[in-house]
Amino acid sequence: MTFKALLATKNGDNISTDLVELEGKDLMPGDVTIAVDYSTVNYKDGMALTGRAPIIQTFPLIPGIDLAGTVEGSSYPGIEVGDRVVANGWGLSQTHHGGYAQKARLSGDWLVKIPAPLSTWDAMAVGTAGYTAMLSVLALEHGGVTPERGDILVTGANGGVGSIAIALLSDLGYRVVASTGRLEEADYLRELGAADVIDRRTLSEPGAPITSERWAGAVDSVGSHTLVNVLAQTQYRGVVTACGIAQGRDLPATVLPFILRNVTLSGIDSVNAPQAVRIEAWSRLARDLDLKKLAHTTKVVGLAAVPEITRRILEGKVRGRTVVDVNA
Questions:
Q1: Distance between CA atoms of residues 39 and 303, nearest Å
Q2: In whole angstroms, what is the distance from residue 255 CA to residue 271 CA?
Q3: β-strands 2-11, 14-23: how paired?
Q4: d(Cα 119, Cα 238) in Å, to the nearest integer?
Q5: Which CATH superfamily is domain 2-114+297-325 in?
Q6: Residue 204's closest CA among 182, 230, 183, 185?
Q7: Residues of the chain with pLDDT under 50
Q8: Cis peptide bond upstream of 117, omega within 30
Q9: Which of 1, 68, 167, 206 gives 123 a disulfide partner, CB atoms 3.0 to 4.6 angstroms apart?
């Protein structure tokens, strides 16, 4: 069998991607073979394809940290031909061929069966970004942050994590404040459920180590000074989740929010999360995410458009989610 794929190669320090035709023998080892329907484009995909971060560790490699499709062959217990499955993270686009192809062969340990009513398209409209947003919601709940506690801040609100976090949190009854550098998108954010929209510049510069209490909790995908200022403004026993580095990977903070206000900083790892956590997150997404809102945040492109989309996502010019139809 031959199939279409986007293949990344490296020449010196330069990474290039080309649409190619591959054969079944080119797939990597695994006990489940999948006919891929869709993949998606995340911030991490942007860093991988542009070489901004050393995500891809072996070349040549099919990038794409997410995929969803239908099982064509399986020797893994509990996964059968015809099952609809989703994969997020693990070794995809790092050491193992990822989702930017019409076929994939993976370890069954990496797969989650897609819960109804989600389709394979829905699963990739969610993707790692939405799955990460759900992990953040679970962390807020685990920390005791209920809607009655007060406002929840979502930074990087126009991005994939931010958009779906707003949709989820607002439908769960939280009052959500969206922080964005694109105030012209305020109507879009309010349609997702944001009660208020603020300029990211109010958070992105160096600030005081601790200031007036404002947020009961926060979902941060930005890092650096933004995360520091969010922590400084978080209420007593509030919870802040950290899942991104759009501004930077540094954290020029003090311990004051932690020891004076008992603030919790919860790290969110989507790549190696245990299977039980993944199943819970996807189950909650199937139950709690408004699919109409999801569709409103999402556009669809073919494989050929992926390199351009990855460049634009790093420039902060992509709103919401981008699904990749690998068969288009």
A1: 9
A2: 28
A3: antiparallel
A4: 35
A5: Medium-chain alcohol dehydrogenases, catalytic domain (3.90.180.10)
A6: 230
A7: none
A8: yes
A9: 68
Residue 305 tokens read as: 């458009």
Handedness of CA 287, 83, 85, 317 (dihedral sign): negative
Strands of the sheet containing 196-199, edge to edge, are: 196-199, 176-180, 152-154, 215-220, 234-242, 264-267
Residue with tokens 């930005």: 222
- The label of the residue with tokens 């893994």 reads 76
Where are any strands of DSSP class E within the chain?
2-11, 14-23, 32-41, 66-74, 84-88, 103-106, 111-113, 152-154, 176-180, 196-199, 215-220, 234-242, 264-267, 298-302, 321-325
d(CA 304, CA 325): 10
Structure token digits, residue 3:
């199939």
Structure tokens belonging to residue 310: 């990855």
The total of other beta-carbon atoms located within 10 Å of residue 243's CB is: 24
What is d(CA 284, CA 185) in angstroms, rounded to the nearest whole number?
Answer: 27
Domain boundaries, the chain: 2-114+297-325, 129-267
Q: Which amino acid appears at position 139 of this protein?
A: A
How deeply is 28 buried, as exposed, middle or buried, from its count of CB atoms within 10 A (0-12, 13-18, 19+)?
A: middle
- From 3.30.70.260, 2.60.40.10, 3.90.950.10, 3.40.50.720, which CATH number describes the 129-267 domain? 3.40.50.720
Which structure tokens are listed for 75?
């020797």
Q: What is the pLDDT of residues 264-303, one digit of tens each?
A: 999 999 999 999 999 999 999 999 999 999 999 999 999 9
216: amino acid identity, one letter? A
